[in-house]
Amino acid sequence: MTDLELMHHYTTVTCGTIPAPRGTEHVLRDDIPRLGLRFSYLMHQLLAVSALHIAYVSPDSDSSKKYLSRASHHQAIAISGMRPALSKPITEGTSRALFAASAFLMVGTFATNRGLGPTSPDVCEVSHRCPMDGILETFSVVRGMGAIREATSKELQRNLVGDLFGTQPQSTSCESLRVVEGRLYLLQALVMADETLDDGLKHAVCAGIGSLLAFMETKSSVTIMARKELSVVFGWPWTVSDELLGLLRKRSPAALTMFLYYCIVMQTLEADYWFLEGWTARLGIVVAMSLRGSRWEEVAQWPLLQLKVPKTRSS
After folding, report:
1. Burial 2-23 (b: 16+ CB within 10 A, else e)
2. Which of 118, 102, 5, 94 is nearest to 51 (CA)?
3. Highest mean pLDDT of the ranges 20-34, 85-99, 190-204
4. Rounded distance between C-alpha atoms, residue 251 and residue 257, angstroms
């Protein structure tokens, strides 16, 4: 009965909160669930996102924990079901299901880890999990689905987007991204000129900046993303290298400073997409705490200011 409730909530409420080009709402409401009847891992992921959305709209209810538990249950089954599907040749039919499941899995992982971490830059010890670990977990999940992107990219361009959403929508220029682009080029030059950084770190950070800039380019196209910023937030994690992930886990100041620019783009979406709400302020605070006393602290002041993170007090 709970799962029937989750499916009803998805088709009547949650599907309307998932990014999609205007005029294609029926795809998320009708076509994707129909595809989920053929591929159980996709259906489980839809139910997981629906449960997370119910928990989001009623966070203080007695049943909130029940829905969060149900979401974890369905998402775990979805991931387990996707693994064997990825080990087989990806066909035209399975590419649609795997692509849709991976997209909803990203929404689910963002939503699962939403709201982790401190609310003040002067709090040094928190009982909650660190939001930085949460976002890197999300990135790892997305990168784990990299086989889908590589094996289906051409076919998705030719068939999936057209079949599901009609003609491929093109992204539009976004002035806020142009400002971030300019700042990223300055940061890239600063990293390259820093003689105290080893070559491996420079390469990893600058490669991350380069891929982030590529997603921001005015002429770059978006497959099913309704907004350019969504292509950055959802697309960039696919490209993050193992080296850059490792640097972020180790709280490398240069890597953390670069990561703040990704957070700025995410911040522009928080008001419109519930699964992103609350991320950037807490991530900014964690980065500010990690940079405290570092020579990168001053370099990071512009992005931290955009994220509305106040300067930390000296120890």
Report:
1. eeeebbebbbeebbebbbbbee
2. 5
3. 190-204
4. 10
pLDDT of residue 313: 52
Which positions ≥6 away from 266 have C-beta within 8 Å?
229, 233, 276, 279, 280
310: helix, coil or strand? coil
What is the CB neighbour count within 10 angstroms for residue 283? Answer: 26
Q: Of 106, 105, 102, 95, give the one whose Cα is nearest residue 151.
A: 95
Between CA 48 and CA 79 the distance in angstroms is 11
Rounded to whole angstroms, how far apart are CA atoms 229 and 222?
Answer: 10
- CA dist 260 and 302 (Å) reads 10
CA 309 – CA 281 distance, rounded (Å) = 7
Spatial contact of 145 and 102, defined as CB atoms under 8 Å apart: yes
- Residue 17 DSSP symbol: G
pLDDT tens string 79-109: 999 888 877 877 777 878 888 888 898 899 8
What residue ranges do the domains of the chain occupy?
2-165, 175-306
Closest to 276 (Cα-Cα) out of 264, 286, 292, 288: 264
Q: What whole-number distance in Å separates Cα of residue 121 and Cα of residue 164?
A: 44
Specify whether the CB–CB gap between 52 and 275 falls below 8 A. yes
The alpha helices in 194-252, defined as continuous H runs, are: 199-216, 228-239, 242-249
pTM: 0.85
| Residue 139, pLDDT score | 85
